[in-house]
Amino acid sequence: MKNVDIYTDGGCRINPGPGGWAALIYEGPTPQEVYGAERDTTNQRMEIRAAIEGLKRLQEPRRVRLFSDSAYIINCMNDGWHLKWRRNGWKNSAKKPVKNADL
Asked: Which pTM does this prediction carry?
């Protein structure tokens, strides 16, 4: 299986407010750039969106290393938060709906 590195970032000028996201996808010597913006969003949504959009660009299965400065994304994947949320009907440990569950 081929390897791919994806570097992501997202943010907002004011949180919430206008924001943007970007991902660099390294499958070869030249990265593919993907990016976008939203008028009314949050920093966390833009971080998640950057990771999603980077992964969506993959044409076939790959071994992925995704780099992010978002503790939310890193902890969600490394600590298995997403597995617990799914089991609990997309509710967090406080029994409240997980934010950004639509993403």
From this structure: 0.90
